[in-house]
Design brief:
alpha/beta, 6-stranded mixed beta sheet, single chain, Protein-Tyrosine Phosphatase, Chain A, 15 helices, 2 domains, 17 strands, UDP-N-acetylmuramoyl-L-alanine:D-glutamate ligase, 465 residues, globular
Length: 465
């Protein structure tokens, strides 16, 4: 183990100062700029401070579920009495992960002994972050069509993750979603250990639709045959041509009950025995996030004796069906970025007989994705019967309103308000006292809506959440 060099120590100091300055001046949470400055001063900083110091790292990547899975892993470890640092504000590119290392390290450039880093990593950044952090555990949640402006198509994302997985140290463990045909094949030829998670339920919760992204065999491109479909293309499958099939599940959800928009109860079968958990977050996707987190903790070598207690208090993360008290009404802020995340949210909402009042806010910025064609793969039709009033907002509000018109929402129930803050006020004013507004939004509009809520005094700054 080598000591951080003078340049590393100076870079950490600059990063810490930049983070404090950003927060004091109210110019953001300082989640990326410190990492940008630190990497400029010492390009090898992340490797020097984390990988070279053998800091335990659990990294989580994939299309959907990274943030929630990371929060579950963090609380499971803290319940075991460990000191954990996490990039919980969602800054998951190279600079955001470096910021986490900077804020966790002391002024001497070293991360305190006994600290575990739980890192959410963007799929595209994994090629850089993985070798610089040398994770003890790498979790791959799933692979869905996402940010095609960046990645081109889903197999490009798979190749990036496969590249990083093949180069994991043989002391590492790769944790993959067995229900996803693309992730199930990752690392099968590696020297490292593999652990799988998934659902072991004897009924389907969905069906294969045009929104499904991976319904062909990753080995021979034959059609996959499903006995159960759980979520989009996730389920129990077998190739119609070759011997490829869903692998054995090491950590499996065997019982599941979703209680409206309040909670999810589940029983998991693990190598250490059965585990019953209730999480104050709703949805089938939460079962996957819990299973992935439990598998990650087991892979890192920690027991589950405090797991139920640790997870019982983990509320919704920023924008993940996040409840917000808005005076005498409630807002549920739901972030969605691709067809699967939209459909997952809509399925969860429909199970609670929602939404009655829906604010749908989407923008086609470079960050959000410039092509709106995927909106036609979102199953808005499944909730049309519930909608009493629809408010549409965003940079292409008219186009989104047109999609909802074809889904069956009557024009006399639809209001278009392009400005996000004004749309929030207009939508909420139509909600009866004691009622609930569902705000379903893309990445940029989610931030804009929550900032409008902050100005009303309903929420704090994002990095204080």
């Amino acid at each position: 183990m080598t000591r951080p060099g003078i340049r590393d120590v100076a870079a950490v100091a600059v990063g810490k100062t930049a983070r404090s300055a950003a927060r004091l001046t109210g110019r953001g949470g300082g989640s990326s700029l410190p990492g940008v400055l630190a990497r400029r001063m010492s390009p090898s900083l992340l490797s020097d401070v984390v990988a070279e110091q053998h800091v335990p790292v659990i990294a989580i990547t994939g299309s959907n579920g990274k943030t929630t899975t990371s929060r579950f892993v963090t609380e499971l470890l803290r319940g075991h009495g460990l000191t954990v640092a996490q990039n919980r504000d969602g800054a998951n590119l190279e600079q955001g992960v470096t910021t986490l290392a900077v804020q966790t390290a002391g002024w001497n450039g070293r991360i305190p002994d006994g600290t575990v880093l739980v890192i959410e990593v963007d799929e595209g950044a994994l090629r850089t972050v993985a070798p610089e952090t040398s994770p003890q555990v790498l979790v791959v949640t799933n692979l869905f069509r996402d940010q095609l402006d960046r990645f081109g198509e889903i197999y490009a994302i798979s190749d990036v993750i496969a590249y990083a997985a093949k180069r994991l140290p043989d002391t590492s463990t790769l944790v993959v979603n067995a229900d996803d045909p693309l992730t199930a094949e990752l690392g099968v030829d590696g020297d490292h250990r593999r652990l799988t998670f998934g659902l072991e339920l004897d009924r389907s919760y969905g069906r294969i639709t045009s929104a499904a992204d991976s319904i062909r065999c990753p080995r021979c491109q034959g059609d996959l045959q499903y006995t159960e479909v759980y979520l989009s293309h996730l389920g129990r499958y077998r190739c119609s041509r070759c011997d490829f099939a869903r692998p054995k599940v090491d950590v499996g959800v065997v019982e599941l009950t979703i209680e409206g928009l309040e909670s999810t109860r589940l029983r998991l079968r693990t190598p250490e025995g059965d585990l019953e958990v209730t999480v104050p977050q709703p949805g089938l996707h939460i079962a996957y996030d819990v299973a992935g987190a439990v598998a990650a903790v087991l892979a890192a070598g920690y027991p589950l004796e405090h797991a139920a207690e640790s997870l019982s208090g983990v509320g919704a993360a920023f924008g993940r069906l996040e409840p917000v008290h808005a005076g005498d009404r409630e807002i549920v802020l739901a972030f969605a970025k691709n067809p699967t995340s939209f459909n997952t949210n809509l399925t969860t909402l429909a199970g609670a007989d929602e939404p009655k009042h829906l604010l749908l806010a989407l923008s086609n910025t470079r960050v959000d994705g410039e092509d709106f064609g995927w909106l036609w793969d979102v199953d808005f039709e499944s909730v049309v019967a519930n909608i009493d009033r629809l408010t549409v907002s965003g940079l292409r509000a008219d186009e989104v309103a047109t999609r909802l018109k074809y889904a069956g929402v009557p024009l006399d129930r639809t209001v278009v308000v392009a400005d996000r803050a004004h749309a929030l006020d207009a939508a909420l004013s139509a909600v009866p006292v004691g009622g609930r507004l569902i705000a379903l939004a893309g990445y940029t509009p989610t931030i804009e809506l929550r900032e409008a809520m902050r100005q009303h005094g309903w929420v704090g700054r994002r990095w204080h959440a």
